[in-house]
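Predict both folds.
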Amino acid sequence: MTVECDLCGREFASERGVKVHQTATHDAEKAYTDEEKLRELYWGESLSMGQVAERLDTDKDRVAYWMGVHGVETRRAYSEQNYASLRVEEGYTLWREYYDGEYNRVPVHRLLAVAEYGYDAVVGKDVHHKNGIRFDNRPSNIEPVDPSEHRRIHGEERADEQRELISQLREDGRLEGGVS
């Protein structure tokens, strides 16, 4: 199957082939071929290629083609940029940043603890959520504690939870006797 150019009748193997042909052959006087206009919209107004295409009544491929013809440098793709974002992992809110090809993460509650207590008070310590809710990062709910103390706190909580579960199972008749 071949596709014909509406403007000159020349046949091509694909729609893409027609588009490239029309861009290179028939578009010489169109606004999107003007290097200065492309630079102004893309860099001056910080529009995306899609926005430039919309403004100039064409498609993104033609804008990309003519920017390439004129040597207009493009912004890096999002995946190549350095950026930071908020994420939630295992109930904790984290800042994750991508820099120089690597991801780095820091829990928000650690950042807040440094802001609240100072770096020296937090370094080498765990930051504990007093009410046990991992995403409750109010300054009044977080405190730096020694790692051994943090393990002890959570060990007691887990033991309490296990005792409560055993008690509930006994009440429901699903567990008999045993050590409590």
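Second protein follows, with its predicted structure tokens after the sequence.
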Amino acid sequence: MIPQIVRAIVEVLAALMLVGGPSALIWYYATRRRPTGDPVGIGLRAIQVIVAVMAAPAIIILALEGVIQADVIGTLFGALLGYVLSPKE
């Protein structure tokens, strides 16, 4: 059993990452430029990274609150890894 204070700290950090992570990544990908000065833009791989950064803390928060069981947690993280590591072009 996880102590309440540790669980609360992890949940707050995950919530901050849930909001701040995608915001920082969207800003980074939106302002990236090629060596010629042209904007790169947000591509498919960038969207995959942003979704992964949003989904992982959400799964952690739901798991700590007891909303989802242990076998579902493994399935969700496996699906998330499969999504991020899938070959897309």
